[in-house]
Design brief:
The protein is α+β, with helices and mostly antiparallel strands. Helix content is about 35%, strand content about 30%. Strand 2 and strand 3 form a beta hairpin.
Length: about 100
């Protein structure tokens, strides 16, 4: 009898157990803000200034993004930047823990 073990970390488990995916991205450069919309109707906030490439990107370069990996990441080909759902969630959890 063989048994398999789940090698996901807690954030990956959260993503897979709840089927979380990125559905959309919106930019508000004047507010140093990117909003990441998930398929569960949650919205994650991400400061553009946390990524040098996003901070320095033109509006056209920001809008030229692709949701990749079946909703697990975002890629900007013209500035060669990619960010993951796991990274967004990790940042969100840490910021919530610090603000408590």
């Amino acid at each position: 009898m063989s048994s398999s073990t789940n090698s996901y970390d807690p954030i990956e488990s959260l993503i897979f157990e709840h089927g979380l995916k990125i559905k959309g991205v919106h930019f508000y450069r004047e507010m140093d803000l990117m909003l990441v919309v998930l398929n569960n109707q949650r919205v994650l906030r991400y400061p553009l200034s946390e990524s040098t490439r996003l901070k320095e990107a033109t509006p056209e370069q920001l809008e030229n993004h692709q949701i990749i990996g079946n909703g697990f990441g975002i890629y900007w080909p013209t500035i060669d930047e990619d960010l993951s759902l796991k990274g967004f969630l990790k940042r969100e959890l840490v910021s919530q823990a610090v603000s408590v």
